What we know:
about 180 residues; alpha/beta; five-stranded mixed beta sheet; about 45% helix
Amino acid sequence: xTPGRLLWFLPLVPVLLLAALLWRGLITHDETIPSARxxxxxxxxxxxxxxxxxxxxxxxxIAARAPVLVNFFASWCGPCxxxxxxxxxxxxxxxxxxxxxxxxxxxxxxxxxARLGNPFADVLxxxxxxxxxxxxxxxxxxxxLxxxxxxxxxxxxxxxxxxIIARELEPRLxxxxxxxxxx
Length: 183
């Protein structure tokens, strides 16, 4: 090939470089959405219990169970049904999980838990959706890991998956449990 013919391919160089950069961006893309609540204390809340609506649970009561996973869910939420068996497995491994039923009728929540099992140490009701907003969440399911100081240390928007649990949740839980033992 003559040097003159090589010049014909010169315009391809920037295109190939751009394609390589885009490919690199695709394969190294971090799919997590940063949460403004991570590193901050639990929002002030007082939510009624599903089965004892006259009793409320506040942020201090949630933190007292730390490390605790707070999971927003709803009976009408398809991804919540997909995620639910994973929550059941976590509960069997002694992970404290508090469920917050988001904008769900109490009877629907009870039927959902009766049908799929109840992995939650406590089920709270967010009837008007205010708690979800205060947590900085955008929908269900979403999960927040809380430490003994009542600080949110991790947030998972969307359903938990086995990969997310293994890669992100379990190491954080282990670290929090180790911190608890050192106290």
